[in-house]
């Protein structure tokens, strides 16, 4: 496993790298101290996961993350946010971050986040033997991990695909917030409902003709979400 640490503070990047390699001797850690060089470093090093500081001069982590996702790169990204900046966490998730961790953080917390993100990535990229799922214009080829709408391929990150997979394979049934969080993010995330709201919004924006009037992923207010059992789904009351 290779971890790329992008932080404009060399001492912080070095300390993070030492902590990771001490606990995970089979991991390699590469450091990049500039947001301006981050995309080149990702292309050159091909890391398995990126730790990306959001608050960097010249070019911040938000613009790096946006360009990365707009370019179709689905490498797992954990953003590093400043304490108390809740808006940064939400914005990072909306731009396609897989997780966040707030500075200052302990090595055990960081390792737990790394393990969780890598576990989701491996699950999301593994092949499935089930036949394709088809609902109206939507088709999901599990074996190829390929999602299309009207034969147009939809690019999903591993976390987005994992969430969609859980909803689709339980189509017609209500899945609670806690159940989805536990299955997709892990049991330690059962109370992080905002993760779901952000990721459901991202998937709707990619799948739904009218994201504000969803036909596929339906909201059961105060409970969770349900994937429509028919192509003419409607928002459920709650």
Secondary structure topology:
Blueprint: E1 2-6, H1 10-23, E2 28-32, H2 35-45, E3 49-53, H3 61-70, E4 77-82, H4 86-94, E5 99-103, H5 107-125, E6 133-135, E7 138-141, E8 146-149, E9 152-154, H6 158-168, E10 174-176, H7 177-184, H8 193-207, E11 217-220, E12 224-227
Helix pairs in contact: 2-3, 5-6, 6-8
Commentary on this structure:
- By secondary structure, the protein is an alpha/beta fold.
- The protein is 41% helix and 21% strand.
- The chain contains eight helices and twelve strands.
- Strands 2-1-3-4-5 form a five-stranded parallel sheet, with helices on both faces. The protein has a four-stranded antiparallel sheet with strand order 6-7-8-9, with no helix packed on it.
- Strand 3, helix 3 (61-70) and strand 4 form a beta-alpha-beta unit.
- Helix 2 crosses helix 3 (61-70) and helix 5 crosses helix 6 (158-168).
- The longest helix has 19 residues, at 107-125.
- It is globular, with a radius of gyration of 18 Å.
- 35% of the residues are buried.
């Amino acid at each position: 496993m290779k971890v790329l640490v992008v932080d404009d503070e060399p001492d912080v990047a070095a300390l993070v790298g030492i902590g990771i390699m001490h606990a995970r001797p089979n991991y390699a850690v590469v450091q990049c101290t500039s947001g301006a060089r981050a995309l080149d470093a990702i292309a050159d090093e091909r890391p398995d996961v990126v730790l990306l500081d959001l608050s960097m001069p010249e070019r911040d982590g938000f613009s790096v993350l946006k360009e990365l996702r707009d370019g179709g790169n689905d490498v797992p990204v954990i953003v590093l946010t400043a304490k108390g900046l809740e808006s940064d966490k939400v914005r990072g998730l909306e731009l396609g971050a897989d997780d966040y961790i707030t500075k200052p953080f302990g090595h055990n917390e960081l390792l737990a986040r790394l393990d969780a993100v890598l576990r989701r990535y491996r699950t999301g990229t593994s092949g499935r033997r089930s036949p394709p799922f088809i609902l109206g214009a939507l088709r999901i080829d599990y074996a190829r991990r390929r999602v299309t709408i009207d034969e147009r391929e939809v690019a999903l990150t591993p976390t987005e695909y994992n969430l969609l997979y859980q909803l689709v394979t339980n189509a017609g049934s209500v899945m609670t917030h806690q159940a989805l969080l536990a299955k997709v993010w892990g049991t330690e995330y059962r109370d992080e409902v905002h993760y779901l709201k952000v990721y459901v919004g991202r998937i709707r924006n990619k799948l739904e003709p009218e994201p504000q009037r969803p036909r596929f992923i339906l909201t059961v207010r105060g409970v969770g979400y349900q994937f429509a059992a028919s192509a003419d789904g409607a928002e459920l009351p709650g």
